DNA sequence: CACCTCTATTCCTATATAGGACTTGATACG
DNA sequence: CGTATCAAGTCCTATATAGGAATAGAGGTG
């Protein structure tokens, strides 16, 4: 039997009224964002959540399925529902990666920080982060891929959110994957990306750093990183000199490992 | 009340046994593949499908949601469920596109076929299509983007499936988008793509065709196109000379326009 | 100690049911 | 004729319920 008026909002004209399963997704997502549950943690069981959220089991399940879909949580039959862990992909680079022609993955094995500074300059990253942000932590790094070749990476981080990084020593930041670093230290996992590529002459500071001829053409690869709720958290530009190694574009959506995919 | 033994398969040990909603997805997908419903057609109503499929409403709805998720069908409140139309994205290029720095999209406006031939050569496309395929229709085209610059495109199609194309005149194929063409004429929409990029010297035939200096570097952009059930249907290589225009990588998954996305 | 069995926990599938909300087209009214 | 109302068709949300299936751990048995 339908319980009277649990269908709370009559939607008043499809205004801001959202479906209950959506509100539950939102609520759980907010809790995760706020750090109430950290990556790796187990959420309460479905039926318990149903009680807490004052919803039926089916509704909670639907909300959780959508969070799985987004890559925010993972569910395991008989074990529980877990916040997606930092290194859940065990070494798999999630949104992009270099591969050899055959498809074997090439891993970045060595990072060397060239410089860290706080800047106010505007550029493509400004529009990515939006108007309100006008201070960036700017980090240049040399990245070696699979002991085969080097690329040059520049990262811009919004200073408002990640100010602590500006004070960190190069030693702390050397050799780390920023993706993992931001996930573990700031609970800011990269959930989605926006990427563009262009072929352009590499700028002099890059050709010098990479030790390739002045004026050499290469790929300028821009990657905007988005966290929960599409909050922009990183903007990165990678300069890739010519090579027979290729950049593989991986679907940016967590949907790829969703069971639905099998249906394809 | 649960009806006795509608829970048909006891799963016998999680062998090939699939959930019912999955089997329904499969069945509908197969019907669409077979052309029983064409792009734009309306499917029977939920409750009617439920009867046909001998499932409850909820189960059918779940199956349909997953098809929406895959981009195979679209559902419209109060109107019905429709097979995703060929040009559903009205001019939006779905999996990749060129954009100006600001983000405005640049459209390919002019195609000129350079040649069509049937070949047996192997290359990166062979592993994409798999062992069984050893004959390809190979089409070279010059593509102008937004009246601004030209790129050189090579497409390989499996001859077994698209043999009719080999006999078509260049006039028929000129100026068409292959994506739309395959959707409309062969009921073979591109649902997913696999993309790689590399910066390399452009081959002589390309530099000649594009009228850029011999040995010019550019982006070699390979795009494998997959249709329903991840069947490979096209393999394309686009040679892009240097430019300040960028290639924007769009999530290859139809999930992007799913309502779930709003939750981010 | 190794192995088996049982049990509690947890997620997974499926059903039947009820009503809300959007769309479209027909009909009635001024 | 234009507009308002209504009804049918369709999808959307939500509930309560029932049982299946995977997992992990406790306890017993040889």
In short:
The structure is a homodimer of 264-residue chains. Chain A has 264 residues and is of the alpha+beta class.
Overview of this structure, please?
The structure is a homodimer of 264-residue chains. A six-stranded antiparallel β-sheet of chain A has the order 5-6-7-10-9-8. Chain A has a three-stranded antiparallel β-sheet with strand order 4-3-11, with no helix packed on it. The first copy, chain A, contains eight helices and eleven strands. The two termini of chain A are 38 Å apart. Chain A has helices spanning 20-33, 46-53, 57-70, 124-129, 159-166, 170-173, 178-186, 204-210; strands at 73-76, 80-83, 96-99, 105-106, 108-119, 136-145, 149-158, 192-201, 217-226, 232-240, 246-249. Chain A folds into two domains: 16-84, Arc Repressor Mutant, subunit A (Orthogonal Bundle), CATH 1.10.10; 91-257, Chorismate lyase, CATH 3.40.1410.10. With 264 residues, chain A is α+β, with helices and mostly antiparallel strands. In chain A, helix 1 packs across helix 3 and helix 2 (46-53) packs across helix 3 (57-70). The model of chain A is unreliable at 1-15 and 253-264 (pLDDT under 50). Chains A and B meet through helix 1, helix 3, strand 8, strand 9 and strand 11 of A and helix 1, helix 3, strand 8, strand 9 and strand 11 of B. Strand 11 (246-249) of chain A pairs antiparallel with strand 8 (192-201) of chain B. Chain A binds a DNA duplex (30 and 30 nucleotides) through residues 1-3, 6-7, 10-11, 14, 19-21, 45-47, 55-59, 61-62, 64, 75-81.
